[in-house]
Amino acid sequence: MRRAVTVVVAPWVRTRLRSAPGAALALALLVAVTACLAGVFPRAVDRYEDAGLARALREAGPVHTTITVSAPQPDFAAAPGERAAALRPDTLERQYAKLLDAAGAPLSVDRDQSAYGVGTRTKPPVPDPWIPRPSGLPAHVALVAQSGLAGHARVREGRLPRTSGPVTDSTPGVEAAVTAATARSLHIRTGSVIHVPGVGRPPLAVRITGILTPRDPAGAYWSTQPLLRTPSLVTVPPPAPDPVQYWLGALLLPPDAAPALLGTAGDPARYFNLAPDLGGLRAHDLDRLKSAVAALESGPGLQRARTVTDPRADVDTGLDDALAGFSGLRSGISSLVAVAAAGTGTVAAVVLLMAGGLAADRRRTELALLRARGVSLRGLAGRLLAETSVVAVPAGALGLGAALALVPEGRTGYAVAAALAVTAVACAALPVRAALAHRAVRVAGGPREDVATVRPSRRRTVAELTLLVLAAGAVEALRRRGATGGQLISVAPVLVGVIAALVLLRTYPFVLRRLGRPARRLRGAVAHLSLARASRTSVSAVLPLLALLTALTTAAFGGSVLSGVHTTRDRAALLAVGADARVDSDAPLPAGLATRVRDVPGVRGVAPVSIDYQAKPLDGQDSVALAAVDPDSYGRLATHTGLGAFDAGDLTRRHGELPALASPSVAEAYGTRRPFLVRLEDGSAVTVRITAVRERTPAVSGDFLVVDRAGLTRAAARPTALLLTGGQVDAGALRRAVHGSGTVLVRAEEQAGYADSPLQTGAEHVYTAAVAAGAGYALLALLLSLLRAAPERTALLARLRTMGLSRAESRRLLVLESLPLALLAGLGGALTGWATIRLLSPGIDLTTIAVATAETPAGEATLRPDAWSLTVPAALVLTLTVAVAATQAWWTAHRGSTRELRAGDGR
User: Fold this and answer.
1) Do 817 and 734 reside in the same domain of the chain?
2) Burial of residue 733 (number of CB atoms within 10 Å: 0-12, 13-18, 19+)
3) For a FRET experiment, which of 216, 375, 624, 877 has its CA 20 to 30 Å from that of 399?
4) pLDDT tens for each residue of 223-245
5) In a domain, 578, yes or no
């Protein structure tokens, strides 16, 4: 019987890790950082989008976000007992509990701020003469019996209302409470009795037993119906000849007193206010939220609500409008953030692949020898996969844990999936690259493949053409569809980068061959040798070139977006203020204020302006804003701001007429050939002639005239505004100098106010971080590509040094050898970034992320190429390439050539 043979397997993984601990540590660090960034991104997006949704709903207010289910009073055909029972709190509470369950996910309801009750639809007038009557009309009141009054109010005077027995529609009187604001406006005190007209019965006597203070006045309990908290002075609409007003307030009854409303003329109705829980709503559920609200308004949710309450019940809410507004803002911002995410993700993936390729090239001889000794391709790939997994999987888990700790909010599933994708790419990069390179068994690592001499295979040509056609088709589709391009917008820089990389790699050998001919006639061997070395670049340079082009394109696009956002906000703030700072008043400003303002830190110039907003040309009915200015100071201000610059001489008085600067509409209405009279608000008049037309002017907007204030009367020429110029105006010191004499506006504060939405600021921060991470990965890709060729260059320099090459010539050789590919990447990246911006600019409106609304003084903001964003990243690529080449030459010269001169090194 044959004995079983035990095979002892060499500890491959442990041996390899011990032989190259530095490479393993570098791979672990790369995977951990990349997995952390990949895990942070979706959670950071979720965090700022959730905060933006909550902010948008808070700004909309409970009046527009609360879902109100209302049901009319029971049918008059029902028995009196049944009508009263339908309004009692126990019946309403059962219906309310079922409605809460019917709301359903993802619509989270804030049970503490939600309420139910009975209220009068009409607000009958009350005859009590002691309630104020501003225009002689009696006050109107709403009777409301809402649940949870004791938990949402503090008793300021008296006590909470209650009932002493069963209440019906014939009950002569009930108790009620009012808020302190209602009591103050309607002169109500504890013990006051208000008589509400009845129907077929005497008036209902409502005795006030308490005055209350809301615990949370801004909460949905009080703000869904603001009348419960604050009375209003109602103006009777036309045809009343004069404004006629009356007070409208709410009387808060106990829930048990609701049946008494059936005997009044108020048309009582049941209602159920379902306030959304702003902390429980998530932006990623936006589509489901809109569907749920739509179902409640006119779908299955409405049918369930009618089944629970009344067949005639109705659902009303403005939540769908608030969600639609947020959805529009979010979609405009998300498409821009997706561009940075796609670009950075592509560059990170390329860097991971390059790291695997570098490891495969470093171990090319070892792997070729293993294949020659009989190791199967599957076995080789499996060993390499185990080797990288031991390092990459713990590093990926560590990076994921760091991401979850750094950003506790947001969905975990997307973060885990992103970290797993990073780990999978890192694990597979080396085995796949080695399997592709060693499909055939060779004794050596294979023949050299130089980019300038090797003709691309048919397979590569077909693959490149296919990729090129797909990318070009996607870009053309994006250009045709514009802003509706969906996910195409996010991958546009990557697609353009792929096209540019393929085109540049195809033209690179031709350029090198064209440069080689004149280099042969140069004296010395450095130029010719450097071009020869550059032409021997491996054909696998497509990955670093793609990484650089994608990163440079994303950086150029991102920099242009951020620059456009800043420019749009600055422009909007400038148009809103008209200067770097402004002091405005309805009355003439104090005489010494201009002098005090000049001493404020940061102020360089002061332009006093007298503004009359009711100036009437030709004694007509139409008004224009007339700004009386000092031509010299105001001219400098207009030139500084770029708002309608003019020459001070244009406003110099001639022949008794005041030259005027006018807006196009005013110039068209009153002409520029003849003078005309302008009547000022104080009764004085001046004769002006329009001598110049400008679209804008700093002092006022809309229809305007600008004249020399020296031509006005002394009273009309007194300044009502001061327009200040200065780079860093101290807002606090300016307000102290003004000391309440006028309203202070500062351009920097206005600009900061346009970016107060969490959706804007969060997206801007994530966008900036993504672009910065992409730039970092691009530099890492460049370093990996240079590190890949470092051993061969070191050996070459060692040999050339023994043949008499000087240190200066060594530096020039490496620099000139590295420059062609670096120039290709830098210039190609700048050109690709410019092309991408020009391609996407028609479909991108930066107003959304800049100021969150299109209704701004700056108007629509389009994407334009930013020169700094195009040139600085490309210049950094060239600088880093030259620095690395020079450093390598210096290091090789000081290290010596003995260690490099070994038999079999280099080729």
Assistant:
1) no
2) middle
3) 877
4) 999 999 999 999 887 765 567 88
5) no
